[in-house]
Design brief:
heterodimer; A: 493 residues; mainly alpha; two-stranded antiparallel sheet; 19 helices; B: 1117 residues; mainly beta; 22-stranded antiparallel β-barrel; 10% helix; disordered N terminus
Chain lengths: 493, 1117
């Protein structure tokens, strides 16, 4: 029996403590990342993917821009059960509205990922990454950080500037910076990006669709325009105009799936269908009306288009039927009988049989198109000198294309110079409404020119009456105020 | 001991029965011959200079012989030597006893009795031999009983037949017959020389043994609060998993079956929920293997306990207070449930067969609109929304009853269990096979379980025991029917199952509504889970010296779960992807090693048990999943993923955790009256940051067996009176994932140049400060017994406070994260629990009754910097979609939060001056409760929400009765809850008044200009935003007759085959046949979000609840 006792004794002696320092095996940890150029690039790619989320460019950014303005409205039998869309539409949103919070959090997610990339890539030495690549990747991250901050500033006003990666759950409460500090940071980042990023002529292999020097320059122009720094808008747009961009002669080519990232595209968010791990676009499914069945499925009929928008196009403007479509009961007998004005967005459609309704189509979402550069320039020139003929030229180039005319030949539909500053601004604004319908511009165009209330009164006085000064900014989300005691709510909220 | 004896008795009675059967006799003889032959040829002993007593023990060890002798024989201490090899027993004995005044007698059963060679001469004078038989009240012989002439050393023991012979006694001598567990009897000897002595069982001595953490104690020595489930009372009920055996059986334990789905998970709360974000389920210890039953927050989640067999359970103990659970330290805060399975007994091989068979039906079907009334309401809804009617109301369309088409009437449940047990003195075994098959009351749902178990115990030597417990199960769950839970009610009744071409319909006649045809799903979809699990535990126990023993055990738990899924092209959603297939495999491997040193001793009035131990455990999870879609046809389903045209992203993941623990406990009893227990456990967990890895969990308890005091005894009131108090600290680390303290990177994708590019980003911030969630608990209780314990009462009051909650809190979003896990906040639970057991009537008619009830009050004491949180819907954490609940300081967890329904606007209301100026007559009016300034502001918005209910019951319990008369017995078990609310989400959809999907028939009683007093609003296709309101909050209190069983023990006189069958019981039972409740849904016991602590009491298209009739049979051979 001694043997067994011996075995037991020795087994007790052999018992050693289980190791409790377990390292995650299916997740990378930040400590052993950033060992190569590929690692560095991956940290930058992850910033882009934030912008493809439903909370930003895959849906709610557009909801803010069109449902939150005179372009779409839930009415006349077309309704939504989505609380957020309804609240935006009717100007009933407040600090508890989900969208108000998710938009905030999602942009800061992009900012944190940018900080993560910038800080860590900067620390990498020459043995790990070539200087050119390092500079370019940091520039790309800075562009994306600037985009996120610019969106935030326009939406919420002055926000806290967080420029360091979050590495601990403590000390996260930060106050708002001044609006100037915010703008300065955006400008600084964009200037750095401008210096570091490649131009469209010299894109590295496989780079197409990522931020370029042109993207940074055009965005910088937009930032200056929003700030009211018109001289700089002229300067930056001039630079973009030297970079080789061209308008498509056919407006519809901008939304042709075969011509994405084409000659007119300055920056667009990339969506791809049927690709595991990559977001597909929602717009095909969201905008297709609920009675139109293509490839076996109907859409959700989101962002229902207002009569006010449908009527804003002049006769002969080709953009109307590309941007929107008014359906008829005779064509679609299945249409619900209570739809008063069955008009829906038409510009993002993926008719491939592979496309599916939710996050399943190919359409990219444009952020900056070259025609925007013309119209920004027109707006800035008009602000500096209303009689500047170049402002009219810029506008008319875009207009002529819309009517299917030669862009560089004067025509009947040209806007003749001699308008007052205000009148010409209104003309530019209307042109922008038609040119960039449902491209995430409308709300900020109206805010920049201080015409949100006016526009809403014109579209639906019931809603227009609700609009107050405070609605120019979204409230700081209540959840955020609770979590961060240093924040102060926007006036009026 | 008693059972042990019974088996031997059975053995001998078996021999007696077969004696007259020649063949059997011959067979038995041959069998014995074999055994004897083996014994004869195998004795090899080498002893030198040992006492005869020791030498005989050696012989016992190497042979199958057992020696009986009078302890007073002087020769026993003589030194002898013996060296034999392969000798016969006779050779050995002759050599051993040479030179002594002793000889030996061989008896059956390999017994050898030592006797004096020369009988004393006194015998001739007046003393004479007596013989007799000792039996128990059932007439079964008692083996090994002591028979002693009182006042002398003259005595003997009974043999396998309960017989004894005693010589050297005379008339009038007092014979004392004693046996453990029986009342000692004194017999005055008369002239009669053969005695038949019946020993009565001593209920006082036969104290119930209760299993506690790392040991057992006598119930009377218990200092903590431990509930014992009387397993035999639960058996015979349709039980799919061990947690189901707990409901209503012990106080302090609240159990909710999350849905009626076969294999659904349950929610168990012992003395209320402690944690907000962390786990709240108790820890199960199954034959020494810890199992934590966490299931995903869904009513259709499968219970991880399904793979634990419910058969062969010997006992279930529920450890409630901190004194009992602190020995489990960091895993004890939610209570501990110890499950011990049966072991074999030496003696005749026992065979037992149990079966039941039953049918189940939906408890309550919903009353839905038929096609005609549906079309009428749909038209009305359209017209009210300025549309035009789309259905011709002059027609009478035929109704498709989707509810009935998906119902599995008379769903069958079958259970078969075969148990074989037995063994010899040194080795015992029990092995069983169980097959359980439950069809669900919805078509294409069922659960099949195959379980195989073996327990083996073996005595290696006098001091070393070993044991092995092996369990293997396979559980198959068909989950297809879960996809139709809502569509079977909502699909419009005016749509046919198949179109003119005999294809399943995809859309309504107008092509506007597309839907997944419930019948197509039932027929063609695949959603099949298979879980293989093996739970094995082996131990060695070494009795080093008297009172000191060391036990080391090693256990493994391997859980391999697979899922196969195919959404066919005959179902709309499947057709959209050309058929969608997916396969998943998850493998979890856990091992645990426990080493416990126990010392027990008694010195006079001091009795002491101490233990120290070290345990270590690690667990590894490894899973992957792959899928594809776009198939040519549905033929291959998910069996050839490569044949799909597009592959979905494959996923895989690995995670590990480890736990190291040191534990110690002291039990000290003074004078058999004052009981002290103290324990401490130190736990180190890999889940926490290095600096906070170790947690220390002490406890102390005191109990006073007051009924042992003479001044209490003199009162003659109490048969038991034991006040107890305990205090202790326990922890929690479940429900927080595996690596909550690490910084992690996540992966994501983007597109450049039309190619996918992979990105990495910080997905989790390091939180090295993270530590245990800690619960302190104070418990005061008293155990009372009256009328010789015919009436017992256990009352406990407790107070639990949990601090450093592992709370998922909102952190500033400007960090790039919306929430983080922190140790923030406090929750308390206080309450009292009472259990009463009584036998009011005893005799040929006996009534046993047990009532238990618990009052628990849960309150959030602190949430850190905020005073309330709106929890997100499980699975919607990133979308900010709220649950309609609030977690507020000063309120209970599970508090409903929403608007207050204030009736329907009628035509005469002044709508313009109300808070809803845009409303129309027939719309719902909500109460304007508050505004930005704290007073009603004439607007209905978030500020008008208020507390509208709470999911936690104020009181819950069970009332169980057993009536027996002669061979009949009747069990009536009821469970009840009082004061809990349910949010009826099924009504939210089924009373939406839109007329786009089917609705409850009650919606016909909607508001119309002619029906102004309705509670339901007008039909309206364009729907206003849905608000969570008290309109859908209902009282969820209920009283349920969970089980009514009538059983009959067929008397042996009826059994012509009594030779083969020793006992036969048949029974019939009604389960869940009656429920008294005001709740309008089919079942008040429900949880859409499964075990989620915040989402309790949410009903939304639950799997229907079933009532069943069962017939069962138990046979023992």
């Amino acid at each position: 029996m001694k043997k067994i006792e011996l075995i037991i004794l020795s087994s007790i002696l052999m018992i050693s403590c289980t190791d409790m320092n377990l390292v995650p095996e299916s997740n990378l940890s930040p400590e052993n990342f950033f060992k190569s150029e590929e690692d560095a690039a991956a940290s930058v790619y992850s910033i882009y993917s934030v912008f493809t989320s439903n909370d930003i460019y895959s849906q709610f950014w557009e909801v803010l821009q069109s449902q939150g303005t005179d372009d779409s409205e839930w009415s006349g039998g077309r309704t939504t059960t989505n609380l957020d869309k309804n609240a935006l539409d009717k100007f009933e949103f407040d600090g508890n509205t989900n969208l108000v919070y998710s938009l905030w959090v999602r942009h800061y997610q992009a900012i944190n990922r940018s900080n993560f990339a910038i800080e860590n890539i900067e620390r990498m030495d020459a043995t790990l990454i070539k200087d050119d690549a390092k500079k370019m990747l940091i520039g790309e991250a800075k562009f994306l950080r600037a985009l996120a901050y610019f969106n935030l500033i326009q939406t919420y006003g002055a926000v806290p500037l967080v420029l360091k990666e979050t590495t601990s759950l403590d000390g996260l409460e930060v106050p708002r910076n001044s609006l100037d500090e915010c703008y300065n940071q955006v400008v600084l980042d964009l200037q750095d990006a401008k210096a570091a990023l490649p131009t469209i002529g010299q894109l590295p292999k496989g780079y197409l669709g990522r931020a370029t020097k042109g993207s940074a320059t055009a965005l910088l122009a937009k930032v200056y325009l929003t700030k009211g720094d018109y001289q700089n808008v002229v300067k930056e747009t001039s630079e973009v105009m030297q970079m080789g961009y061209k308008l498509w002669s056919n407006y519809a080519d901008n939304f042709n799936l075969d011509k994405e990232n084409g000659q007119e595209s300055i920056f667009e968010i990339q969506f791809k269908r049927n690709t595991p791990g990559v977001a597909g676009s929602n717009y095909s499914g969201y905008y297709r009306p609920p009675f139109v069945k293509i490839n076996g499925w109907v859409g959700y009929g989101d962002n229902p288009v207002t009569r006010n928008h449908y009527d804003c196009y002049e006769k002969g403007d080709l953009r109307r039927d590309i941007n929107v479509r008014l359906y008829t009961k005779s064509e679609y007998p299945n249409m619900s009988s209570n739809y008063e004005f069955p008009c829906y967005v038409n510009k993002y459609q993926d008719l491939s049989p592979l496309a599916v309704r939710s996050q399943g189509s190919e359409n990219n979402y444009p952020i900056l198109r070259y025609s925007d550069v013309y119209l920004m320039r027109a707006e800035a020139l008009n602000a500096i000198n209303p009689s500047d003929i170049e402002a009219y030229n810029c506008l008319n180039i875009v207009r002529r294309r819309a009517f299917g005319l030669d862009m560089y030949k004067t025509s009947e539909i040209d806007i003749k110079n001699g308008l007052s500053k205000d009148d010409f601004l209104n003309v530019i604004l209307l042109e922008r409404r038609r040119e960039f319908a449902f491209e995430g511009q409308r709300r900020f165009d109206l805010l920049r020119t201080n015409k949100l209330k006016e526009a809403m009164m014109a579209q639906n006085p019931v809603i227009g009456t609700v609009v107050q000064d405070k609605h120019k900014l979204l409230p700081i989300p209540v959840t955020e105020l609770d979590a961060n005691k240093l924040l102060i709510q926007n006036p009026g909220w | 001991m008693k059972t042990n004896k019974k088996y031997v008795a059975l053995l001998s009675s078996f021999f007696e029965r077969v004696k007259n059967r020649k063949i059997m006799h011959g067979f038995i003889c041959a069998l014995f011959l074999c055994i004897s032959m083996t014994a004869y040829s195998q004795i090899t002993v080498n002893v030198r200079n040992l006492s005869l007593r020791e030498s005989l023990k050696k012989v016992e060890q190497v042979s199958s012989y057992k020696f009986f002798y009078n302890e007073n024989l002087p020769e026993l201490s003589w030194k002898v030597s013996l060296n034999v090899k392969n000798a016969t027993i006779d050779q050995a004995m002759v050599e051993l006893l040479s030179g002594m005044d002793l000889t030996y007698k061989k008896q059956s059963g390999n017994l050898i009795v030592l006797v004096k060679k020369n009988q004393p001469t006194e015998q001739k004078i007046e003393k004479k031999p007596y013989s007799g038989k000792v039996v128990d009240p059932n007439g079964e012989p008692i083996i090994g009983a002591n028979v002693v002439v009182k006042g002398t050393t003259n005595g003997t023991m009974t043999d396998v037949n309960g017989r004894f012979d005693i010589s050297n006694v005379k008339n009038n001598d007092l014979l004392e017959i004693s046996y453990i567990g029986y009342v000692t009897q004194n017999i005055r000897l008369t002239d009669e020389s053969f005695l038949r002595i019946v020993l009565k069982e001593n209920t006082q001595v036969l104290d119930e043994i209760v299993v506690v953490g790392y040991g057992t104690v006598k119930k009377s020595d218990l200092t903590g609060s431990v509930g014992t489930i009387q397993v035999e009372k639960v058996q015979g009920i349709n039980v799919k998993s061990v947690d189901q055996m707990l409901q209503g059986r012990t106080s302090g334990l609240y159990m909710v079956e999350n849905s009626g789905m076969p294999g659904a998970s349950s929610t168990v709360r012992i003395r209320g929920g402690n944690s907000i974000s962390g786990g709240n389920e108790p820890l199960y210890i199954i034959d020494g293997m810890p199992v934590y039953p966490s299931a995903s927050a869904s009513q259709t989640a499968l219970s991880p306990l399904n793979s634990i067999p419910t058969s062969d359970i010997e006992s279930i103990e529920v450890l409630k207070d901190a004194s009992s659970t602190a020995i489990y330290g960091s895993r004890g805060a939610n209570g501990v449930i110890i499950v011990t399975t049966k072991k074999g007994k030496s003696g005749k091989t026992a065979v037992e067969f149990n079966t039941y068979w039953g049918i189940q039906n939906i408890y309550k079907k919903y009353d839905l609109l038929n096609a005609k009334s549906f079309e009428m309401l749909a038209n009305e809804a359209l017209e009210n929304s300025n549309g035009t009617a789309i259905y011709d109301e002059s027609l009478t369309p035929s109704t498709t009853d989707w509810q009935q088409l998906t119902t599995n009437d008379n769903a069958l449940t079958q259970n078969y269990q075969l148990t074989i047990s037995g063994g010899y003195e040194k080795t015992t075994f029990l092995t069983s096979f169980n097959y359980y098959n439950q069809e669900g009351v919805i078509k294409a749902t069922d659960m099949k379980k195959y379980a195989f178990r073996t327990n083996i115990d073996h005595k290696i030597s006098d001091t070393i025991d070993m044991g092995l417990s092996l369990t293997m199960t396979r559980v198959d769950n068909n989950r297809v029917g879960n996809s139709v839970l809502s569509s079977r009610l909502t699909t419009p009744p005016n749509i046919a199952v198949k179109d003119e071409d005999s294809n399943y319909t995809f859309s309504d006649n107008n092509g506007v509504i597309t839907f997944d045809n419930p019948v197509a799903i039932i027929k063609d979809k695949v959603d099949w889970n298979t879980t293989y699990r093996t739970l094995d535990n082996a131990f060695v126990e070494w009795n080093i010296i008297k009172g000191l023993k060391f036990k080391s055990s090693f256990g493994i738990d391997i859980n391999y779960a697979t899922n196969k899924y195919y959404n066919p092209r005959t179902v709309y959603s499947g057709s959209q992807k050309g058929g969608q297939a997916e396969k998943t495999a998850n493998n979890t491997y856990t091992w645990i090693n426990e080493n416990i040193l126990t010392y027990t001793n008694t010195w006079g009035i001091h009795s002491f048990t101490g233990l120290i131990g070290y345990t270590q455990q690690t667990s590894t999870y490894d899973g992957f999943n792959a899928g594809s879609y776009g198939f040519l046809n549905d033929n291959l389903e998910m069996n050839n993923l490569a044949s799909g045209t597009t592959y979905t992203a494959p996923e895989s993941g690995v995670s590990k955790w480890a736990l190291n623990s040191y534990l110690a406990r002291i039990n000290y009893t003074l004078n058999n009256k004052y009981l002290f227990t103290a324990s401490i456990r130190a736990d180190g967990s890999s889940r926490f940051g290095k600096d906070n890895r170790w947690g220390y969990f002490p406890s102390a308890a005191f109990a006073w067996r007051a009924s042992e005091e003479s001044f209490i005894k003199d009162l003659n009131i109490f048969s038991n009176l034991k006040p107890r108090i305990s205090f202790g600290v326990t922890g929690n680390q479940d429900g927080i994932g595996t690596y909550p303290s690490y910084a992690l990177l996540g992966s994501t994708g983007y597109v450049a140049d039309d190619q996918k590019i992979t990105g990495y980003y910080p997905s989790q911030v390091a939180n090295t400060n993270l530590k245990w969630e800690t619960t302190s608990q104070f418990d005061a209780g008293v155990d009372l017994g009256f009328f010789n314990n015919r009436l017992t009462l256990v009352v406990d009051g407790y107070y639990k406070k949990t601090h450093d909650l592992l709370l998922k809190v909102k952190i500033p979003g400007s960090s790039g994260f919306s929430s983080g896990l922190k140790n923030i906040g406090e929750v308390e639970n206080k309450g009292f629990e009472v259990s009463i057991n009584a036998t009011p009537v005893e005799g040929s008619f006996t009534w046993n009754t047990g009532l238990n009830f618990t009052y628990n009050k849960n309150k959030v004491l602190s949430l850190g910097d905020v005073s309330f949180i709106y929890p997100d819907q499980p699975g919607q954490e990133n979308n900010g979609i709220h649950l309609g609940r609030i977690v507020q300081v000063g309120k209970s967890l599970g508090t409903f939060y929403g608007y207050v329904y204030d009736g329907i606007f009628s035509t005469s209301d002044d709508i313009a001056s109300s808070a809803q100026p845009t409303a129309s007559p027939g719309d719902i009016r909500f109460k304007d409760i508050s505004g930005p300034d704290g007073v009603p502001d004439g607007k209905i918005n978030d500020l008008d929400r208020t507390i509208i209910g709470c999911a936690q019951p104020k009181l819950f319990g069970g009332f169980n009765n057993i009536f027996s008369y002669k061979n009949f017995d009747l069990n009536v078990n009821t469970i009840f809850t009082l004061g809990n609310d349910i949010y009826n989400g099924t009504r939210v959809t089924m009373e939406d008044m839109q007329g786009a999907t089917n609705m409850f028939a009650s919606t016909l009683n909607r508001w119309t200009p002619e029906n102004q007093n309705a509670t339901l609003p007008r039909a309206l296709r364009s729907k206003a935003v849905m608000r969570v309101s008290d309109q859908f909050v209902e009282d969820g209190s209920y009283l349920r007759f969970q089980n009514i069983t009538l059983g009959y023990n067929v008397p042996s006189s009826f059994l012509n085959f009594a030779k083969y069958v020793s006992s036969l019981r048949i029974y019939a039972s009604l389960q869940n046949f009656f429920t008294i409740t005001n709740y309008s849904g089919d079942n008040p016991e429900i949880s859409k979000y499964g075990q989620d602590n915040l989402g309790a009491g949410y009903d939304s298209f639950s799997y229907p609840f079933a009532k069943s009739i069962l017939f069962g049979l138990n046979v023992k051979f």
